[in-house]
Amino acid sequence: MKFDHILIRFGEISTKGRNRRKFVDRLKQNIKVVLPEYTNLEYEGTRDRLYIHLHGEDHEGIVNKLQHIFGIQSFSLAIKCESDLSKIKESALEAVKGLYKPNDTFKVTAKRANKQFPLDTNELNYQIGSHILINTEGLTVDVKNPTINVRVEVRSEATFITCFDYKGAGGLPVGSSGKGMLLLSGGIDSPVAGYLSLKRGVELEIIHFFSPPYTSERAKQKVIDLTRELTAFGGKINLHIVPFTAIQEKIQQQVPENYTMTSTRRMMLKIADKLREKKQALALITGESLGQVASQTLESMVAINDVTNTPIIRPLITMDKTEIIAISKNIGTHDISIRPYEDCCTIFTPASPKTKPKLEKVSRFESFVDFEELINDAIENIESIEVSQEQKDEFSSLF
């Protein structure tokens, strides 16, 4: 069977009222970004559907990629025909012949969006079902639990026939909720936080803090690979690698050991917030889960958050580790995250970090050092690269 269209159904986009067109346009743009190699595709959007005309393109590769695009509730390979009964019957038969096996069952589910069509849905179901039954062997009707559900959607401009639905990723189209800066460490949690933010329509830029020679080039490559995995859900992502060695060394020298973790996180947020402002993003995103480690207690968050008024999104805040690991495996980041290359968050971890740090104390410890100069120097020397699915070992610098 030769499918000529893909019919895309919206989920949450359908609730957007007057703003729906903006969401549909963003979804269409995101699909084009993810499918650049399919140059013959033609897109047509309506209020409640998006249609992709294949023009002979291989649908299998397209189906695999569409399943990762946020904003799609479900989609189906479809045959488009004229809204004429004889044409509908022949197209439905063609669709079923390409799918069914002996002893399969089927039913016809017609939807008459075009109320001017002369037959109602019951008559359509009977006419199409009878035509299929007469012209096939070994196929029987089962209206309750069929192997094949032949869906016929009669619209004024054309009729679309589908037989199988693919589940979409749900959520909102990436970019429809503004831009956020994800602090990506290289562990299990932060890539999952990035994935969940993408699902809510947030466009991501990623920040990673790199401390050579304490952290290796392999740790850096690990973060690039994690970023590339996330591009499957949101297209190209800009990754900003911040040189953090001088700041971490100064913290180790000047701040009492049990407060070094708190101070380190505060410096990270300061840098991330300055970069966020430069990139015109609206929020910072972290992989924190409440109580998971010393820096993720409520007391620690109060002391760390004090350096910025920018909203901090924490998608994992109420999840436990097993839930986070399950998502990481599902999205393909888990095996990369567990590579044994340490990041700057783990190499200087104190033996007994403060779980209830006092804001006034950490502020006083930091007051003896001019961190602002070190922060500005780190920002001036950021390495920024654009990561995409197509890139393997070569990356193009943005600056």
TrEMBL record:
InterPro entries in UniProt: Rossmann-like_a/b/a_fold, ThiI_AANH, ThiI_fer, ThiI_N, THUMP_dom, THUMP_ThiI, tRNA_STrfase, tRNA_sulfurtransferase_ThiI
Residue positions binding ATP: L183, L184, H208, F209, R265, G287, Q296
Biological role: Catalyzes the ATP-dependent transfer of a sulfur to tRNA to produce 4-thiouridine in position 8 of tRNAs, which functions as a near-UV photosensor. Also catalyzes the transfer of sulfur to the sulfur carrier protein ThiS, forming ThiS-thiocarboxylate. This is a step in the synthesis of thiazole, in the thiamine biosynthesis pathway. The sulfur is donated as persulfide by IscS.
Biological-process GO terms, alphabetical: thiamine biosynthetic process; thiamine diphosphate biosynthetic process; thiazole biosynthetic process; tRNA 4-thiouridine biosynthesis
S-adenosyl-L-methionine is among the record's keywords: no
Compartments reported by the entry: Cytoplasm
EC number(s) stated in the UniProt entry for this protein: 2.8.1.4
One Pfam family per UniProt: ThiI_fer
Enzyme class: transferase
Record keywords: ATP-binding, Cytoplasm, Nucleotide-binding, RNA-binding, Thiamine biosynthesis, Transferase, tRNA-binding
Pathway: Cofactor biosynthesis; thiamine diphosphate biosynthesis
Molecular function GO terms recorded: ATP binding; CCA tRNA nucleotidyltransferase activity; tRNA binding; tRNA-uracil-4 sulfurtransferase activity
GO cellular component: a single term: cytosol
Protein name, UniProt field: Probable tRNA sulfurtransferase
Originating species: Metabacillus sediminilitoris
Database matches in PROSITE patterns: THUMP
Family: Belongs to the ThiI family.
Lineage: Bacteria, Bacillati, Bacillota, Bacilli, Bacillales
Superkingdom of origin: Bacteria
NCBIfam families linked to this entry: tRNA uracil 4-sulfurtransferase ThiI
Catalytic activity: [ThiI sulfur-carrier protein]-S-sulfanyl-L-cysteine + a uridine in tRNA + 2 reduced [2Fe-2S]-[ferredoxin] + ATP + H(+) = [ThiI sulfur-carrier protein]-L-cysteine + a 4-thiouridine in tRNA + 2 oxidized [2Fe-2S]-[ferredoxin] + AMP + diphosphate; [ThiS sulfur-carrier protein]-C-terminal Gly-Gly-AMP + S-sulfanyl-L-cysteinyl-[cysteine desulfurase] + AH2 = [ThiS sulfur-carrier protein]-C-terminal-Gly-aminoethanethioate + L-cysteinyl-[cysteine desulfurase] + A + AMP + 2 H(+)
